[in-house]
Design brief:
alpha+beta; Helicase, Ruva Protein, domain 3; Tetrahydropterin Synthase, Chain A; GTP Cyclohydrolase I, Chain A, domain 1; 3 domains; three-stranded antiparallel sheet
């Protein structure tokens, strides 16, 4: 039987409801780590279900770097204007603007990267590996690995979070969906740096 202290600690760690925390602790005989893992898994599964729901409310967050040399505008959508006004959602939008300012992604998702560009980069990486004497199947794997690294540089969702390098942006958003209970979508962004070529 879970104690009120255990339930409170688990609730603070996950943001889950009291009954869910009690159920998780009871199912795992009071083992905090197992209950935490179970709640996270349940939250991520719920977030995956929510990802198909339409998100048309939200905020447009603007960030200007001190000194006026860099600015970011990002549109982050959710399902209701009620959620859009919450401090947690606004903080997420601000964190995403900081991420874009700091890491300069070119695309939101891997799927947004032009297919012809991907094909040419993949082929270039493969040819480079073959020139180093690698077997074709090894060259393919090396090229795929280099593409994954490239996605981490150019795709917002694949980047590690500037405030926590153990978290990817897509996981940050998925966790927010699980906590908030609504679908969240990064719709678009623009990053301007003084003197850069367009």
């Amino acid at each position: 039987m879970a104690t009120s202290e255990q339930i409170k600690a688990l609730r603070e760690a996950t943001g889950a409801g009291v009954l869910d925390c009690k159920k998780a602790l009871d199912q795992h005989n009071g083992d905090f780590d197992k209950a935490l893992a179970w709640l996270n898994e349940k939250g991520l599964a719920a977030a995956a279900k929510k990802s198909s729901r339409e998100a048309r409310e939200g905020v447009i967050e603007a960030y200007a770097h001190p000194g006026g040399r860099l600015a970011v505008v990002v549109e982050v959508n959710c399902e209701t204007d009620f959620v859009a006004r919450t401090p947690e959602f606004k903080e997420l939008a601000h964190d995403l603007a900081l991420q874009i300012a700091s890491m300069s992604p070119k695309y939101i998702r891997k799927e947004d990267v032009p297919a012809d560009w991907i094909a040419s980069k993949m082929e270039a990486h493969k040819q480079e590996a073959l020139a180093e004497g690698k077997k074709p199947e090894i060259a393919d794997r090396i090229a795929a690995g280099k593409m994954e690294k490239l996605y981490q540089d150019i795709c917002l969702m694949e980047q590690t979070f500037v405030k926590d390098d153990k978290v990817k942006i897509r996981d940050l958003i998925t966790a927010a969906i699980a906590r908030i209970g609504e679908n969240i979508v990064v719709r678009r962004f623009a990053r301007y740096e003084l003197g850069e070529e367009i």
